[in-house]
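Repro case for the chain-ordering regression, as requested:
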Amino acid sequence: MNNNGTLLSLENVSTHFFTADGIVKAVQNISLKIKKGRTFALVGESGCGKSVTALSVMRLVPHPQGKIAGGKIVFEEQNLLELNEKQMRSVRGNKIAMIFQEPMTSLNPVYTVGNQIAEAIKLHQGKTNQQAKEDAVEMLQKVGIADSQRRINDYPHQMSGGMRQRVMIAMAISCQPKLLIADEPTTALDVTTQAQILDLLDELQQQEKMSILLITHDLGIVAERADDVAVMYASRIAETADSKTLFANPLHPYTQGLLKSLPRLGFTGKRLPTVAGIVPDPLHFPSGCKFHPRCPIGCNDERCQTIEPEIRYVAPGHGVACWYAQGYEKITDKQNG
Amino acid sequence: MSEQSKKLPKGRSLWSDGIHRLAGHKLAMAGLVVIAAYFLLAAFIYISELCNWKISFLQWGDKIGREYEPPNAKNIIGTDFLGRSVLRKTIYGTKISITVAFLASILSIAIGVPLGAIAGYFRGAVDEIIVWLYTTLSSIPYILLILAFALVLKDKAINLHWAGLGTLELRGIASVYLAMGLTSWVGICRLIRGEVIKHKDREYVLAAKSYGCGDGRIITRHLIPNVFHIVIIDFSLRFVSFIQAEVILSFLGLGEKNSPSWGAMIDTARLDLPKGYWWEMTAATLAIFFISLALNVFGDALRDSLDPKLRIQ
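-- result from build under test --
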């Protein structure tokens, strides 16, 4: 993959939280690349560090307890971690925008939706109130809200969840960002609205030629919408590949377990298989490979219990962190995917 | 515009929603009328002084009868020890009470709200300094602190020439409201700090940051409007305590000297009461009673209708 196609790359990014009980390493040595115009999905269980990864990219990790401990976040050939706060503000909303899980609470209740969309436009494009308001109407139209001329004067509590998520999207794309981070954008919505919102994101991605970092725990959405995938487990990436490869040929036992636990059309068994065990406590991660206590292969293996495997690329673009993955041991030096 | 959209109800902000609910509360509206009457009276006294109108019921210094005349047909609430009308003194006293309570409230909000918002938003060292400051201040008995401030400020002057405003003489009334304002911001500061801590991790704040708002903008545009109902409620309830504090300070001889205030009236009437001259004390007390009651009733209703969590219907 040549460098020109990469919009955002994370290199060994770690984010830690300093709590009263100790240091929580929410994200450890994560590397990933998001290509221009493509959708990259970050999948994993609750608490595995997906959202913290997204907040790290925005540099909005809760302060002062959270801190990006190391690594590089390179966006358009610029390390975001080296920017000062003011420069970072001109990136947020302008070049990288974000939408959140809870559309019910992510709009400010005291302002009309038009007012909030216009604020983002005024902040970055120096437009007058009148121009910004006209833009806001246009944005609402773009995200499929009927009668937008009137609707911009509505307050958030007058709208349904799906409409509010559309408003959030309108705010996010109002300055034509290069990257849109969608942190579980449909988790709080019902299934039909989910599909509509995802279709809208697809459509806008075509129009605006932006990249999307989609954070989700829904493998169905990944299979349908994502070009590339990374599966996270306990603060690290377990496996990464383009989505076709990942679904056809999963190498990490965790990925395999996740895919097995999906209901399939025509499935007639009694119970769906599950990944045994529970997610480890981030304050007391197991030694070695963090997945080994739940792993069907490595639970009794001494190497898995003591040495943590790194990501190695067993095929172009297909990285995995498991001692038992096919072809893993043959690769000695870490290749760049 | 489509046929359907014409039927959509007009959007109402949380504010207008609260005011709408307040308007349906009869007792609160009665309270509001009383409060408005007091304010209008105070404003009217200022205007008449500025324009040099000679209105008989504001000429509180005139001798209109014998000393200690009990209430009668000519002087409804009687006269004081110099034969001046108690009614006129009571009416004129509104000016001092409302002025002091209003300016002290504004001052305490101007200090308490920004400090509370900054402490709650930034936390860390800034928060600790501000919390230390207000806990220290609040550990000193309130009246003692006001007394100390009033005594220090008394007969001093603040040079405001740099702002083109001349000199502010801190005699009498100015030292009273400055002392009250400078000591009473603790309550509102604490409330705002707590509320900002609650709000600052909400998703709408994170969303505002994610589209490029800076800290100053988040505080002034996003957080303060969301916690401002607390300021209004606190204002309406604190106003009463300022009126009462003014009475206490005047009673202790630290208030306004040259014109009547309710506190000064109670102070002089205190010595007359054992002799059976009850009307001056009664008039001043009733004046305080009605505005206190009105403010309390109104303040409670205001809290009920502006605080979203207390919405019952």
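Ordering looks correct now. The two ends of chain B are 33 Å apart (CA to CA).
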